[in-house]
Structures are given as C-alpha cells and as structure tokens.
Predict the structure.
Amino acid sequence: MRSLAELQRRRARRNQSARVKGTLILCLFSCYCSVCAAGEVLDLSVSADDGKYEVKIVAVVDAPEDYVYRVVTDYRHIDRINPAVVSVDVQQADGNGVVRVQHHSKHLMGPFCFSFDWTGDIVEAQRGRLEITTIPEMSSFRSGSAVWVIKPQGDRTWVLHESKLEPKFFIPPLVGEYFVKGHMRDSILTTFNRIECHARSLLAQDTQQAAQHADGLMADSAECKESLGNEVGLVARNP
C-alpha cells in the first residue's frame, strides 16, 4: 500500500507534467501563428497630397473579433503592436467615454530619423468602431484623424483602419515623401501582423487555461515582437 507522501509526490509530478505540456502546446501554437500566412490584406493604399499623408488598410485577421478588439483597445500597451512607440500615457479625457492617449515614438525612414509626439482622443462611437482625433497643440502634427472598424467574420475578423496626418515638421519633397510612404506601408503591415499574433496568443492562453487550468502561461508571445513582414504574416492581396 502506497504511503500518503508517495501519493502526494505522484500527484505533484502529474500536475507539473500537465503544466509543462500546456505551456509547450501554447509555445507551439504561438510559433505557428508567427510563421503561417493566416490572414490577408484585402486593400492597402498609402498616399500623399500637399503635405498630408493617408493610409488605408482592410484585412481579414485570423483570430476571433473579441480578441482582436482586446488587442486594438489595449492602449497602455500600444507598443506591442507599434514597435516605434517608446513611451505612452493613457487617461480618461472626460466623462463621456473619451480616452486620451499620449505617446512618443521614434522612426527610421531610409536616411532620415524622426521623433514624434502624438496626443489624441479616442471615442467608441459604437461597438467595434473607434474614432480618433489628433490634438495638434500636443502633437507633432497640424492635424490628424483615424478610424478603426472591427467586425466578426465567423471565427475571423474583418478590420478596417484609415488614418490621416499632416506633419508639422519638414519632409523633403520627392525623396522624403517616398521614404515616408514606404515606412507607413511597412508600419501598418507590421501592426496588423502583431494584432493577429497577439490576438491568437490570447486565444491560446484562454483555451489552454480553460482546458488545463495551468498556471505560468506566457503573458506575451515573444514571436509577436518581431516585424513579421508581408512574407510570413498577412498576405497583401492588393498592395
């Protein structure tokens, strides 16, 4: 007959084995997210006119809508989806649900290096629609606006993002504009790839926690911290 101590040791080993197995499954799931061409870009455009820059992207992200929404609205950790951000501050602007976000970012665009200060008010006009207004006196931009639209599409998510910015700083014509537009295109693709990767990592964590009740799961997928690019992340159908 086994002693109580031996039974406790066997139970501890089984629990440890379950935790390790759960973590390995999550690691494999996260790595798979980072190398598969899962989502796809349906439309992507970047334009410049009279010193104003505009980017528009429509994509289907291979993750459920509620997880995509959680990632996009996690303003305090915006650096997870925008690696150029080096500091961020979030506060309630008023009692009407407006969130004011301030962040500082650094960008390398070809031979040029820019540091931006940006402040904007974010309001959720309706579930899945975020409207953003830049505050010029607190930003490096004369004007700016953006919109996010997030809609469920079965187990996936349809996402639209449009943003317009007019910088206060001087950008050299032709060559400078070329580098800025290229940087904006690369940045938005990186952001969407990170949104998908983080959303799928959150899904994996919740699924594994529900199934295994395992602790010590990763809070953040390291693979999402790399710029996945267009080759291994979202596939641009109409770049």
Q: What stands out?
A: The first helix runs from residue 4 to 35.
